[in-house]
Specification:
With about 500 residues, this protein is of the alpha/beta class. It contains 15 helices and 21 strands.
């Protein structure tokens, strides 16, 4: 994990550092070399472990100690081109191609710490935005909120990405936890004792520069008689309503249990998990000042309404938008809701990708405090964020697992207790996985998926995987803007109550 620390700050001089274990990157040196060395010594840091210095700009309160320090301790120097040119003209560093670099002692070559490229990238972004000192202070707050809890569930090694592919791809399970009042849950945001009503499998293809996301319908069948999910290895998990959204809740709030079921039934490895309380959505959107989203058709249910077009949604309206599954355009209920949620994802992605470093830092403590829990550390989260901002929207894909529709409600029997599930279409799912999600693990056959397709009565026609790319969704938004069908003044709900009342 990387740590941000201020050595000294103020009009007399500024200096901070980014540290991981015993290695560190200095940011500026606005006081004497002696003062800086004394500050480093007080932290137990050796000057030989400094891997470089980032200079934010060339004012004296940021560079006054550099000349002496670099003569005694030659290390790499980072900064904007203009800043480095100025320092070269002053003789602080040699000009490019000057051939007058200070002599260096021959040392055994050391492997560059994995965190260093990320640290430099984040620091340079801060320089460009002119918020280094602010960023240092904010990151101290962010770190406290992003620390995994001491008792955070860790996913077992067997369901993670194979060792030979780590670094090329990272697989993350994102679950939206519904703590809806009236369902007799504890409503404790520190536990996962709500229904995982949103299940989104995210595959970051770092090597290929792509993000592929798979929506799994919340009412997908995972068990039959006895309400037990039988894994291929003989292990069993409870599923109180036979649906995949009850697995975590039925096993003490264990997201690891849900991850293992997904791995066993869909053969999808999972490295990390993220759980999101719906309240995080409301507060995040409001803190953004709204999210601009294209609404493909009019929506109306239980007194709440949104009009078709390119709209700016506040938190309550956004909650209604992603949770609604009734009324016009929702003949297939949850399946149509999954399709609608994609427009929100597209709007959210566009907003995040347009944000500066200050906005990002302001958001992280809010959304990760109480509402979002993960087993990822700060460095991993930051790496994923940086990777995401580099992915073109044309390479961000959304799909959903095909399921058989027209499932009869068999509530008259004691066996299934009135629950109506959608049944996974194993053949279509295998084809989808092999085309988009198993680039690093090889193809899988329908028979290898441990799905319970034939253990429940179902229709003969299944839903489409509905493969879409965010670039396509962005075009619909752009067309609406060009046509003038926009309302960016605020939320467009027409009721007087919270828009999220529809569920």
């Amino acid at each position: 994990m990387a740590y941000f620390t201020t050595l000294y700050s103020g009009s007399s001089g500024n200096c901070a550092l980014i540290r991981s274990e015993d290695k560190y990157l200095l940011i500026d040196m606005g006081k004497s070399c002696r003062t800086t060395l004394t500050a480093l010594k007080s932290l137990g840091l050796a000057v030989s472990d400094c891997v470089g210095i980032l200079v934010t700009h060339e004012h004296s309160d940021h560079v006054s100690g550099l000349d002496t320090f670099l003569k005694k301790h030659p290390v790499p120097l980072y900064g904007c081109a203009d800043t480095l040119d100025t320092l070269a003209s002053r003789g602080t560093i040699s000009p490019p191609g000057g051939g007058n670099e200070p002599p260096r002692r021959r040392k055994k070559k050391k492997k560059t710490p994995l965190w260093l490229p990320l640290a430099v990238t984040l620091a340079v972004l801060a320089v460009i935005s002119g918020v280094v000192v602010y960023a240092v202070n904010m990151m101290n707050k962010v770190e406290e909120n992003l620390k995994p809890e001491e008792n955070a569930t860790s996913l077992v090694e067997e369901i993670q990405t194979l060792e030979e592919y780590k670094g090329d791809v990272v697989n993350i399970l994102v679950c939206g936890i519904d703590y809806e009042e009236g369902r007799n849950y504890s409503n404790d945001p520190t536990s996962n004792d709500g229904m995982t009503d949103m299940i989104l499998y995210c595959q970051f293809d770092i090597k290929g520069g792509a993000l592929r996301m798979l929506q799994i319908p919340r009412n997908s069948l995972v068990a039959t008689k006895g309400r037990k999910v039988a894994l291929s290895n003989g292990k069993t998990y409870a599923a109180t309503n036979y649906q995949i959204n009850s697995v975590a809740l039925s096993n003490g709030g264990s997201v690891a249990a849900l991850a293992e079921v997904i791995y066993d039934q869909y053969k999808l490895p999972i490295d990390y998990y993220v759980t999101v309380d719906m309240q995080a959505l409301v507060e995040m959107v409001d803190n953004f000042g709204g999210i601009e989203v294209y609404i493909p058709h009019d929506m109306s249910f239980a007194g709440s309404a949104l009009k078709q077009g390119y709209r700016n949604l506040d938190g309550a309206s956004a909650e209604f938008f992603v949770r609604c599954r009734h009324g016009q355009g929702y003949s297939n209920s949850d399946i149509d809701r999954l399709n609608m949620q994609r427009y929100f994802y597209a709007g959210l992605f566009k907003r995040v990708r347009s944000m500066g470093i200050t906005d990002v830092l302001n958001q992280l403590p809010l959304i990760f405090n109480n509402y979002i829990h993960t087993d990822m550390d700060l460095t991993t989260i930051a790496k994923m964020l940086v990777s995401f901002t580099r992915i073109d929207s044309a390479n961000i894909m959304l799909a959903q697992t095909p399921v058989f529709m027209g499932v009869p409600n068999v509530g008259v029997t004691d066996t299934f207790d009135g629950y109506s599930c959608v049944v996974p279409d194993a053949g279509s799912i295998a084809e989808l996985l092999n085309t988009y999600f198993r680039n690093y693990t090889g193809p899988v056959s329908a028979s290898e998926l441990n799905l319970v397709t034939n253990d429940w009565p179902h229709g003969t026609a299944s839903t489409s995987a509905n493969v879409q790319f965010v670039g396509q969704l962005d075009k619909e938004s752009d067309d609406a803007i060009l046509s003038g069908d926009t309302d960016l003044e605020g939320a467009v709900t027409t009721d007087g109550q919270a828009a999220g009342s529809a569920n």
